[in-house]
Amino acid sequence: MASTDDVSQKRAELERCPPGEDDRDVALFNLACALHERYDKEEEIDDLNEAITFHRAALSLRPVGNDDRSLSLLNLAFCLGIRYDQQGAVDDLEEAITLERDTLELSPPGHYNHDVCLYNLATHLEWRFRQQADMRDLDEVIDLHRAVLELYPPGHPERSSSLDQLALCLLNRYEDRGMVDDLDEVVTLRRAALELCPRGHPDHGESLHNLACDLRRRFTAQAAIRDLEESIELLRSALELRPPGHPDRSSTFHELALCLSNRYDKLGTVDDLEEAIVRGRAALDLHPPEHADRDESLHDLACALRKRFVKQATIHDLEEAIELHHAALELRPSGNQCRSSSLRGLALCLSNRYDKLGVVDDLEEAITLERTALELCPLGHADHGASLHNLACDLRKRFTKKAVISDLQEAIELLRPALKLRPIGHPDRSSSLHELALCLSNRHDKLGVVDDLEEAIALGGAALELCPTGHLDRGVVLYSLACNLWKKFQKQADMPELCREIFLDQAASVVCPTSRVDVAFSLSELSLHLWVRFQKQATMADLDNAICLATCAVELRLPHEDVSVGAWVQRVAQGAGSGEPVILGQAANDLCVLANCHRARYQTQHAIVDLNEAITYYRYMLQLRPAGHPSRASSLHDLAQCLADRFRRQSTTVDLDDAIVLEQEVLDLLVRGDPGYDESRVFLTTYLQMKFSSQVATMSTDASSVTLFDIKQVIRNVAFEILKTVPTRLLHTPTGILCNRDAQVSQFMNSQQYKRLVSLCTTRSRAQQMELIHTNVSRHFQYVTLSHRWGEAEPSLRDIEGHPIYGMSTKGGFGKLQAFCRVALERDYIWAWSDTCCIDKHSSAEVQETIGSMFVWYRQSALTIVYLSDVPSAGFLGNSEWFRRGWTLQELLAPKITVFYTQDWSLYKNLTSSNHKTDVAVLEELERATGIESRFLANFSPGMDDARSRLQWASSRRTTRPEDIAYSLFGIFNVHLPVLYGESAENATGRLLAEIISDSGDISVLDWVGEASSFHSCLPAHITSYQILPSPRLQPNSEEQSLAISQGLSSFEVLRNFATSLLPQFLSRSLRPSSITPADRLRIPDSYAPSDVYDFNSFTRAPLPRFRNRCLILPCIAHLITAAQLRGEDLSAPSYTYKIQARGLRPLEIELPDKLESATISQGALQLVRPWHSRGQSAALDATSEGRLLLTLGRPFNALLLIEVPHSQYKRIASSTLITAQPADSASILKSKVRIFHIV
């Protein structure tokens, strides 16, 4: 360490080197280092300030090119970073970062300080991220730490700490963006760090603890129990290495308690909860009142005690939890980021105490606390959904107590947005579904609104699906659903008399049966009645409802010790349930109804899942009907038939063998003359024949000897294969019923066309069969698509699912849908698709798939019907609003065959053509209405060719949801990007345009005028900025007229076309020696730096434009602005006109919406640039090509105005009009250089 004597000695050395001496820079540097060392020892800020002063002086004497410059930069940046850490001056941090970037450029890979430069820059960028929360800094920090890690191979002493640093940064990014890939990498890095710190290493305990924490985080995100199990094991090992007195023992106690509590939530093991409480108390004991983490220990222990209360109902636990939450809340005053969680935890406990003791004041206080918590968790906060849910639950409780309808209405309003914040896959989605179902059921009881009950049943069913057998909440969810089903069906006029009498007896005292047994009995009776009615009337709704009711009835009858029907049946079959004869008989009847219903639905819809369910329930029945039971023979026979049906579908030999054994047992139980004997004998004979036939088919080598079962299975397989590229749901035009894939195939398998196809296949060879099958199945599943402008009351999936549309109202969108299906049927198509009702818009996954597939669906449709609701029969189609909507652009371009219908569903102009796209007159009208050339209208190919024109086509169109204007273009450009509803239109459009540039390198996308996007300065805020396809003006004295200009191409398009047509012809001579530097030869292909420069003879080597982390890497011919004089201003616009002088350009004027800062002009921060587009051919210019390039570059072009910002980056300044520039002369063109700009 430096002493005062050291500093004095260095001062004396400096005095001996006055200004002008060769070694003065060394003396300044040494004195600065000595002062820095003394600061490290004595922490006197004056020493640090003086060290910085002397480092600056040394740096001024070490200009660019000096071998020691990088060392001065590095040390000065280090000192500035220390001063920022002590005093918080942001300017110090910014300067340190700038200096370290310069140092890094002077310390390339291989330099002895390269790793230090990377690490220091990463550290200071991380400090800035903590200060400013700019994710771009964190992304760069991660890249830098990765680079450092590559320099520290296994065995390097710094590798372990480098692994931890990278893991921490990735963890920060995960917490901000929630990208699971980051968390997975964190776990991988932690494992690598643990391997470098084996048992006995001083950091072994810390490595165990860190890995355990991150595994618990991944469990929270992915719910993989193995992560939690491993985390607990690691923490137990870490605890052994942190004995009493260890400073980190409390944190391990606390983390272990959290993990155990999480495992209790997942598995319900009470021992885990008990240990979590013990560990939580131990952590709290190690956190005295002044400890920084005491509030967290209080809060987590309180939560664990509340869980034990919920499990064991011990009021002492709840009272203690409330006391702990109060104590934690005192340590989390207003402004504390954890205050909302304490408010929410205390409110939950008070609500539980109200449930236990009925003290209304507890409920009122809980509601007050939850409203406060909700204010602290606004929309976008991670706990906003939980706050909405909890407040809604207590408002419903208060409604139950006081019957104030406003509480119930508010609860419903809160639960709907809470449900949106808990999408499919969210661990708490089931509880929100259940709670909303309860509220709607209560409102139905209060106000009698039938729709509330229907929605409550639908939500309850969805909640039950998320609570599988064994789930802690399944019982309460099932009971609530069963009660709602009872309410729905008990009002039916034709219910069985016995059931009616039971309901009437109960009506005087209760609204709904009050016990599980009563509800189970009622639902059982109703399911049996619906099954009988289905057998008479064949109404599928009755069959579906019978299955639903019987399923609920069976599960409600399960004793508490049984978690599944199978477990209960097995226990009863072993004699454990002999004391439950009544329940046993009722459950057997329910199982019989379930088995029969699933079998009947399979025979109707041919869904294999129904057949499997029927087999399962028949097997259960057999266990409940042992030898000697009067109904055993019929159960055996029914099960045998189902197994034989499954063999026909799947050709599983064991199914057929089991069916034979079962029928043989039936014949053993019956004698000739008994009912069912002859039928069983016939079926046994059939099964034996099937077994023989299948064996013969297997042994045969004749390709044409295909059994009937083989043909049917092949047809079915082909049908499903063809339907993979067809919309998931289609309307069956003859019946008006919406069909999913299974229903579509079922309809085909029951059709006369299918029967004829099977018959024809029996006489054909295998090759002929396959051709015949593909032809017939493809023809059968041809479908028609509807293109229209959405109006009022459009039918949704929920509106029409399970109901023929022809029996519905003819008003609004329903009438339109009916007319569409009728017209499709008239044109001999039996399948139709509409975007109103054939999509489940509540499923984000399905919406994403639909948007990604819609262009293909319209392209593959046999016909697209365009309905122009605002065009009368004698009107002109170009007047329709249809041409101004966003989604209809792809619906115009994608289909191969299109017909237009007017307001009254008559053909446009009574044209009888099968395809209006082949009608010359219609094409001319379409071209006038859209501005799209007829060749594109008739034969459009999706992709990124001529992207600027495609953007112009969409620029005057609008969508209801702003972000849809970008999503509607995904198919047109053939891009596949995530659909993120809720993002801004600027963000959605920015992502699309960035993808176009990155994939195609098309710089014409940058040719626009208007407001710049917040997504990126080079992209427009609105797609309307592409309405005009600009072309730069030629000067009056130009000697040659450009063909591209005369055709209306922009300057960006000229360059793009030049690159594709002329550059491949370049070069028969080699490049000048100056045109390729050693750095060019050694450069990694994708490592283009802002300093890369390409002269006139190496333009072809410039890279293509692309986006990387929202930074546009753009090759440009740059022209530094040397003077900018304000010529006029219009404050009403506002508008500012400048006369510009730029190197290599003729003087020009530009018009800007904002005034330029004078300092910006004087500092040389402005550039006019001409984006360059190259296909990257490596060749030299021959004389002819060079002349043509000179001619091309000599024409006027549309320029971009850029301003330099920190970190060697640029931003585009949007202009009010096009900036048309022209090179000064040929000499200036020959001096042109292409630079790589990093634009943000």
TrEMBL record:
InterPro entries: HET (IPR010730), TPR-like_helical_dom_sf (IPR011990), TPR_rpt (IPR019734). Gene3D superfamilies: Tetratricopeptide repeat domain (1.25.40.10). Residues 783-870 form the Heterokaryon incompatibility domain. SMART domains: TPR. It comes from the Eukaryota. This is Heterokaryon incompatibility domain-containing protein.
